[in-house]
């Protein structure tokens, strides 16, 4: 029977982990921050506008076009205003924490698949500090 078969013990435990994550009060709080942001048209528009302007300035700079002081000031002012929006700040923090959670879970699973056992706390610490296989980036195929 395949390890990834719908009825396998690995998939059953994965589903349990997912249920545990979904029920975690901190995860629920983070999801609520994301949902609040997504439901607030003004906050989303403000965020998108600043993000888009930042991308435009980055592309201009990358293309060798010098940015004017006014362009930089305008962008920084818009960005500062954006960071005063509590809904946006909560969204950005939630997004960061959710990405960290996803990364941490991925590292545990990845290292388990590489090592053939659950990694120790020390091995996890090494992966965070850039040590371990492939400089802590994991992922096989690197001659480790």
From TrEMBL:
<dbReference type="InterPro" id="IPR023378">
    <property type="entry name" value="YheA/YmcA-like_dom_sf"/>
</dbReference>
<dbReference type="Pfam" id="PF06133">
    <property type="entry name" value="Com_YlbF"/>
</dbReference>
<protein>
    <submittedName>
        <fullName>YlbF family regulator</fullName>
    </submittedName>
</protein>
<dbReference type="InterPro" id="IPR010368">
    <property type="entry name" value="Com_YlbF"/>
</dbReference>
